[in-house]
Amino acid sequence: MGTKFDLSRVLEDLENTSTLDELGAVAVGLRDKLKIDHIVYHWVDGGGDQYGCTTYPDAWVARYQERNYHRIDPVILGCFQRFQPVDWKALDWSGKVAKAFLKDALAHGVGNQGYSIPIRGPNGQFALFTVNHSCTDDAWQAFIGAYGRELILIAHYFNRKALEFERSRQPDSPRSLSPREIDAMTLLALGYSRAQVAHSLSISEHTLRVYIESARAKLGALNTTHAIAKALSRGLIVV
């Protein structure tokens, strides 16, 4: 499980997608590179409408939708109250309903380990990006330790592209920032240092500074913190 991969190539592949099917193909490729069981991008609205792409078995996807499992899924319920990535083992699986759900999921090929990244935007937009696998706790912690930061960036790329494919779900706020400026501001909003942002985006700190100053000027912000606050309030970035 886990192997070195070119993050910039994955982000480039995502940038070049123009349909949900192509986004799904990138998910399959990334799953294979990481040598894990599944990758899922899952969007659910208040009315129960579900949207996204997944490498889960078709039988589980159909069963999940037919039984409206999103209403009881501990992952969705738990992550909705959180802003940071969540290891499934940190969620509450103690209830009778949750245990029955987990048993059904495992029987349909869902792995015993999961790591979900909540993504929020304006107008109540909420989605989850999940990686899933079957392995020991120690092996899973090692995997997340090695790839956690990259997965956060990939999750936000998935969300941004998915919203482009579903215009009716896309926020109304204008996007005045460039894709790279959005990436930089998103990672800074998530608490990354400038060095970590530059490393994640495979650019120099000098180039990152250019993106930050450009975003700050477009937003009319006094400093970087002010720029992040303005970008969040206008829905230009989601965290």
TrEMBL record:
<dbReference type="InterPro" id="IPR036388">
    <property type="entry name" value="WH-like_DNA-bd_sf"/>
</dbReference>
<dbReference type="Pfam" id="PF03472">
    <property type="entry name" value="Autoind_bind"/>
</dbReference>
<dbReference type="InterPro" id="IPR000792">
    <property type="entry name" value="Tscrpt_reg_LuxR_C"/>
</dbReference>
<keyword id="KW-0805">Transcription regulation</keyword>
<keyword id="KW-0804">Transcription</keyword>
<dbReference type="InterPro" id="IPR016032">
    <property type="entry name" value="Sig_transdc_resp-reg_C-effctor"/>
</dbReference>
<dbReference type="GO" id="GO:0003677">
    <property type="term" value="F:DNA binding"/>
</dbReference>
<dbReference type="Pfam" id="PF00196">
    <property type="entry name" value="GerE"/>
</dbReference>
<dbReference type="InterPro" id="IPR036693">
    <property type="entry name" value="TF_LuxR_autoind-bd_dom_sf"/>
</dbReference>
<feature type="domain" description="HTH luxR-type">
    <location>
        <begin position="170"/>
        <end position="235"/>
    </location>
</feature>
<protein>
    <submittedName>
        <fullName>DNA-binding transcriptional regulator, CsgD family</fullName>
    </submittedName>
</protein>
<dbReference type="GO" id="GO:0006355">
    <property type="term" value="P:regulation of DNA-templated transcription"/>
</dbReference>
<dbReference type="InterPro" id="IPR005143">
    <property type="entry name" value="TF_LuxR_autoind-bd_dom"/>
</dbReference>
<keyword id="KW-0238">DNA-binding</keyword>
